[in-house]
Amino acid sequence: MEKRSPIFDRVSKSTPPELKRKITHSFAISERILDILEYRGISQAELARMLSKSESEISKWMSGVHNFTSETIAKIEVALDEDILTIAQGFRHKPLAVKKRK
């Protein structure tokens, strides 16, 4: 097993959980788009044309660190006719009590 760097461990421990989650989401979105492109035989250049974007912009998006907006995701979903995100329904944990708003 490969040993991790102490610097990596220190940085990882000091990274806020919400930033870790954001990075995980960004990579997952990029991977999902790349999987769809590969499955459909669509190049990043073709996706750029479909979205009226430059090839370099699409390449940056696919790097895994782009902060996708819901608008951009929706445009990609429409262009590819495929869902990128699945929104969870309900709660993972049932709320103990819910106050009704007045």
TrEMBL record:
Molecular function via GO: DNA binding
Protein species of origin: Chitinophaga varians
Domain HTH cro/C1-type: 33-87
Pfam families assigned to the protein according to its UniProt record, in alphabetical order: HTH_3
This protein's name: Helix-turn-helix transcriptional regulator
InterPro entries for this protein: Cro/C1-type_HTH (IPR001387), Lambda_DNA-bd_dom_sf (IPR010982)
